[in-house]
Amino acid sequence: MAIEVGAKLEGKVTGITHFGAFVDLSGGVTGLVHISEIADNYVKDVKDHLKIDDVVKVKVINVDKDGKIGLSIKQAIDRPEGHQPSAPPRERFGGSGGGAGGGDRFPRGGGDRGGRPFKSGAGKPSFGKPSFEDKMSRFLKDSEERISSLKKNTESKRGGRGAKRV
């Protein structure tokens, strides 16, 4: 029996790894269900959803030249026409989204990467996107500030700058 892309088959889970599960189809042919194709929601551990010897319905999503078969459990589920799975919104960097705007666009404090609001440099009016030069000068300024702050902190911990050692 030839395995064709789009075919829905039943198979038996024969192996579980951290990246997915191997499913034995008919005639000793084995395919892989990647962890991202197991369920509509986020799958942290495959073992929370599947066990060895489980019989699952899978859809063949690709067949490589070298014989590797890609399978999907979530695509094998028959859904009503036009129905999209409702996935919960993802949070960036885990946690509560942190900072001023909660789960805002910026993960730490409602500004650019340093938690400070972005300011366009060189006194130019900002009409939407800042220019590359503005971004670069801002980056260099922030980088220099962070490095000097880091140096101050590490020198004081090491006993540098005239601190007395015991």
TrEMBL record:
<feature type="compositionally biased region" description="Gly residues">
    <location>
        <begin position="94"/>
        <end position="104"/>
    </location>
</feature>
<dbReference type="InterPro" id="IPR050437">
    <property type="entry name" value="Ribos_protein_bS1-like"/>
</dbReference>
<dbReference type="GO" id="GO:0003729">
    <property type="term" value="F:mRNA binding"/>
</dbReference>
<protein>
    <submittedName>
        <fullName>RNA-binding protein S1</fullName>
    </submittedName>
</protein>
<dbReference type="Pfam" id="PF00575">
    <property type="entry name" value="S1"/>
</dbReference>
<feature type="compositionally biased region" description="Basic and acidic residues">
    <location>
        <begin position="105"/>
        <end position="115"/>
    </location>
</feature>
<feature type="compositionally biased region" description="Basic and acidic residues">
    <location>
        <begin position="131"/>
        <end position="158"/>
    </location>
</feature>
<feature type="domain" description="S1 motif">
    <location>
        <begin position="6"/>
        <end position="74"/>
    </location>
</feature>
<dbReference type="GO" id="GO:0003735">
    <property type="term" value="F:structural constituent of ribosome"/>
</dbReference>
<dbReference type="InterPro" id="IPR012340">
    <property type="entry name" value="NA-bd_OB-fold"/>
</dbReference>
<dbReference type="GO" id="GO:0005737">
    <property type="term" value="C:cytoplasm"/>
</dbReference>
<feature type="region of interest" description="Disordered">
    <location>
        <begin position="74"/>
        <end position="166"/>
    </location>
</feature>
<dbReference type="InterPro" id="IPR003029">
    <property type="entry name" value="S1_domain"/>
</dbReference>
<dbReference type="GO" id="GO:0006412">
    <property type="term" value="P:translation"/>
</dbReference>
